[in-house]
Amino acid sequence: MLKQFKSVANILLNRQMNEQDFTKNESHYLGRKAICSDIAYVFNSLHFSSIESGMLTFKRVLFVVLIASTSLSCNSVSSTQIGSLSGKRPQNVVFFISDGCGPASFGLAREYQKATTGETDLFIDSYLKGVVKTFSGNHKITDSAASATAYSCAIKTYNGAIGMDMNQNPVETVLEAAEKAGYQTALVSTARITHATPAAFSSHVVSRNMEAEIASQQIGKGIEILMGGGQSFYLPKEQGGLRLDGRNVMNEAAAAGYTVATSKTEFQSSTSLPLLALFTSSHMAYEIDRDENAEPSLAEMTDKSLSLLSREGKPFFIMIEAGRIDHAGHSNDAAAHIQDVLAYDDAMKVAVTFAERDKNTLVMGTSDHETGGLTLGAQWGALSGYDYNPLKLTAVHTSIEKFMSEVMQVRQQPDVELTTWIETESKNQFGLASETYQTAVKKLVQYRAVTGDSAAFSHLRKILVDSTAKVARVGWSTGNHTSVDVPVFAFGPGSELFSATMDNTEVGEAIFTALGLKK
458 an active-site residue? Predict the structure, then answer.
């Protein structure tokens, strides 16, 4: 009987729990080895004779021993699904999140790089470990808030939640735990620093839209570096911001000892911690549009953060978000998408190069979700997808977002003929000069008085999206997120914690483990 029991129990212990076992009444994903109901089934399925009825006590004891030996319970999250820390524990962890970046995004950037530079691989290709499942606590498709909370708190939660569980209870983040344990911490993003991803590591609110409250909480966390875009929720409306409470949180940060930088020059000259460096009112520019004299690149911000933190001689945790990859995916802007993926790759190279010298730093990265449903080799009418060619996108020198902003400005200038301007600048900035495109623009401007500006310019944006995608034979299935699994990369001590197919909560658990922190 014991042999039979062990055989069945071993099978059960190797069975993975399906996502459907998660219930929204639980703040934790119960997830890896679901055995409780199965053990009960084993007991019931073992047919004992009346002579063996005395074995009931034995079965109960064996049940308890089995549960204890596997460190599992029906109400806990085990760490057996993540890899074990087989080598030394890293002193520092640098965690990258490429927001909205899926496998096709890396494929498109890789092929573009190959076509333009001859480099056949992205830098991060060598460090691929596996893939991550991204579903949230209440949807098969996550938003950035729920996924970032899965990484920061190692829990499943509802879309829109920031550092909160399914019942809207705050849960300690890995950054907060690191601060308590004496680590230095940093948050870096090309999006607003109050946006969903950095917010999920530094605050607790029931909705990601509460960015003014997020800014207020961030300054009180003891975070050594806050860097990126997003002055608007740090400043009151009277000073060009979006806060309605009259508070100037940037001034409050300065009073609390922060060096405050708002330009690249001030950023470069900053030599002390803590540092609050916010370069733009909202998100930073797409890499394709970035003014190198006004805004630092993600690689430069990464290098500055590592330089400032490492000189202190203390362990540190950094979360670095390439936030605008996601926005280009939402906009279905292939050229802008590529450049921000390549900027992310450059930043990872900076961190890994540091880690190679340091020997004590884990660098890992993944995405919160995929955005856009990108297809490489899309068929456009009679045009075959087999003609997929990212090299065609080298003709694009600006984002569609920036171009449309310029269109809105030009239409206010009575001395500029809008049709001619759009045709000329479409050729200069996108390489679009075909007769079909010019005819579409003429019709668009001609009937603008009938359709109204909003409809007309929305259609122009669609023409630009389709024209740039068609020439390269790429396609987009949505302007929103998808449930596609995303890659995970890792280098350095602790990289063995990331492998195969992981849930996003398991990535969070692995970061806690790497830092030696208890969840």
Answer: no
